[in-house]
Specification:
heterodimer, A: 248 residues, alpha+beta, 17-stranded mixed β-sheet, 17 strands, B: 376 residues, mainly beta, 16-stranded antiparallel barrel, six-stranded antiparallel β-sheet, 2 helices, 61% strand, globular
Chain lengths: 248, 376
């Protein structure tokens, strides 16, 4: 009986050792590597819950959380050659990095964007069920070999913006509705309401806002572009611009 | 040497632009015309055909360069004191504006700086010629600009306030000398419109579905207009306030009012004297647009209170306008736009009868516009 217990313990110990080595090998395959880092970028590891400062050639794994601080950027190359450009003030989680071990297996890359902006350049997916997806605020965007950016303001009911540069991107809203977007698309999701920003001229850049655009348009309408101040206004009074404002 | 430098700059420009390409080009054709209730043989009518071109190019997410100009052909007919009707014709470019908008942060606040230059590519005599025929510009702005060199700058900053924001801005316009024939089409003299300073404050509150509530206040302070080196006119300070509700998918509207302080005039080259009777009456307006997807219907009402002036045209009157618009999307990055507008204008005391007594004038002004826009 004692011999049986010792033998059993030895088997269990060996099993644990083997599974640990196997698990490490598997994890190492499902990884990403920083190819560029500027400023302060942190990695909170799932394993050990440590916080590390990211640097070039550093490896990250499934479950790790990446935080780019103000004025900091990074590029993360994933195991399949896809790349994520990380903008300043961005936080996201490597939710799933599954590398196929043969041609029949699915490749799955999934990220959860908490706040900020990611630009994704995605390699071709190997099987029909393979996926590359980013989720933010319940909205999931996925691709099949394309370039797109995805950003979230990180609020409780976040405003999420998708811009497509190449290929086709699908988006699944929080109700499960699936939509496809082509190059040139620039879409905002907020509380399951989609707004086509590509339709709107003078889409505000990141540093602008509706209020600033409105002030700027007032100035352009009244002083610069329409040149209202003509001789007529000088001689006989002044002009009044009547123009219904449809905001953006 | 100069050509070589220009080529280098051009290559650098193209290389830079290729790194972050996003632009927009729009071209269009506009026809407008008007007539009045003048009794024959007197006439007061005209037409204009405009071909506007606008291009903007965002070199980086924070730098947008834009330019705008147009070509116009026009025929304006008018009658003075029972003489035979006379027609002025135009076939010329208007002024061209080239500007840039830079967004950045002032401390942690979103900010914008806009600077533009006005190139004098227009006919500087046209604004004088057209004024006898076109509806008073208090009601409808001139569609043409023929000025001299000019420059303008604007700085705005956004101050967050909960879900909304306050915007504060200040702008300045420098207007160089132009129009060698102001006042008399055959007489050569020099006129420089007064520079102007613009102060603005707005309050934007966003709501769901891209709806926005915008409250605007602004002040224009004009400096003296100079003729042949002498001050001769200074427009009174202008105050504006409006309430705007915008909903790109349904009803948008704006209610506003404008008020002018008395202007100042010079007599025979003397100093500017503020007029005792204000020549610019206050005005109120209401605009609305209802959007049904790509189709929309716009309306406008403006009422100008009669001013006290007994020397200058004392204005006063009403404008009513109505027009549809349709946007036809051609592809992901291009669209055709169609719109039309018909305005009825009642301009009090804008004409005179055979005895020289002031009479009111009615105008019908209509506009048809087509435009093509594409992303670059």
């Amino acid at each position: 009986m004692e011999l049986f217990k010792k033998t059993l313990f030895a088997f269990v110990l060996m099993g644990l050792l083997i599974s640990s080595v196997w698990a490490d090998n598997q994890t190492n395959q499902n990884q990403g590597i920083f190819t560029a880092v500027t400023g302060k970028v942190e990695v909170k590891t799932k394993k050990g819950h440590k916080t590390k400062t990211a640097e070039k050639d550093m490896t990250v794994f499934q479950g790790d959380r990446i935080i780019a601080k103000d004025q900091s950027t990074a590029t993360l190359r994933l195991f399949d050659g896809s790349a994520l450009d990380i903008s300043p003030n961005t936080e996201f989680v490597l939710s799933k990095l599954q590398k196929p071990t043969d041609a029949t297996q699915d490749k799955i890359l999934r990220f959860k964007l908490i706040v900020g902006k990611l630009f994704a350049a995605v390699q071709k997916l190997t099987t029909s069920r393979s996926s590359f997806e980013i989720e933010a605020g319940g909205v999931v965007c996925g691709v099949r070999g394309t370039k797109f950016s995805f950003e979230s303001d990180g609020k409780s009911n976040p405003q999420v913006k998708l811009r497509v540069f190449e290929g086709v991107v699908y988006a699944i809203d929080t109700k499960g509705n699936k939509f496809f977007f082509h190059p040139g698309s620039y879409v905002k999701f907020e509380k399951d309401i989609q707004t086509d920003l590509s339709k709107l001229s003078n889409t505000p850049p990141d540093n602008s806002s509706t209020g600033l655009n409105d002030l700027n348009e007032q100035f352009k309408d009244n002083i610069i572009v329409n040149q209202n101040k003509t001789l007529n206004s000088v001689q006989g009074g002044s002009n009044v611009t009547i123009k219904p404002y449809v905001g953006n | 040497m100069l050509n070589k430098n220009l080529k280098i700059i051009a290559v650098l420009f193209l290389m830079t632009s290729g790194a972050w390409a996003e632009g927009e080009l729009s071209v269009g054709a506009v026809y407008d015309g008007w007539n009045t209730n003048y009794a024959a043989p007197a006439q007061d009518n005209g037409y204009e055909v405009l071909f506007p071109v606008a291009i903007s190019y965002r070199f980086t997410p924070d730098l947008n360069i834009y330019s705008q100009g147009e070509f116009m052909t026009a025929g304006d007919t008018y009658t003075v004191n029972g003489a035979s009707p006379q027609t002025y014709n135009l076939s010329n470019l208007s002024d061209t504006v080239l500007g840039g908008e830079l967004t950045f942060k002032t401390f942690s606040f979103k900010s914008i700086f806009n600077a533009a230059v006005n190139f004098p590519t227009g006919d500087t005599t046209w604004n004088t010629k057209e004024q006898s025929s076109i509806p008073p510009t208090q009601f409808i702005d001139s569609r043409y600009s023929g000025r001299g060199w000019g420059a303008s700058g604007f700085y705005g900053i956004s101050l967050p306030d909960g879900r909304g924001e306050y915007g504060v801005g200040v702008g300045y316009l420098y207007s160089g000398a132009f129009n060698p024939s102001y006042g008399n089409v055959t007489t050569v003299n020099s006129l420089s419109l007064g520079s102007a300073v613009f102060f603005a404050l707005n309050r934007v509150m966003p709501f769901k579905n891209d709806e926005n509530e915008i409250i605007r206040c602004s002040v224009y302070q004009s400096f003296p207009t100079v003729e042949n080196g002498q001050n001769f006119y200074q427009l009174g300070t202008n105050f504006n306030a409006s309430y705007n509700w915008s909903n790109p998918k349904a009803l948008s509207f704006e209610l506003g009012g404008q008020f002018y302080l008395p202007s100042a005039w010079s007599t025979n080259g003397g100093p500017l004297v503020t007029e005792s009777l204000n020549s610019n009456g206050p005005r109120v307006y209401a605009d609305s647009t209802y959007a049904f997807d790509d189709f929309s219907l716009a309306s406008e009402i403006k009422y100008i209170f009669q001013s006290d002036s007994i020397i200058n045209y004392n204005g006063g009157g009403l404008l009513l306008g109505l027009g549809p618009a349709y946007r036809l999307k051609l592809a992901e990055d291009s669209a055709l736009k169609f719109s039309a507008m018909a305005d009825y204008i009642y301009a009090k005391n804008n004409g005179s009868d055979s005895n020289g007594n002031p009479t009111s004038t009615e105008y019908i002004f209509w506009t048809v516009t087509t435009g093509y826009e594409m992303k670059l």
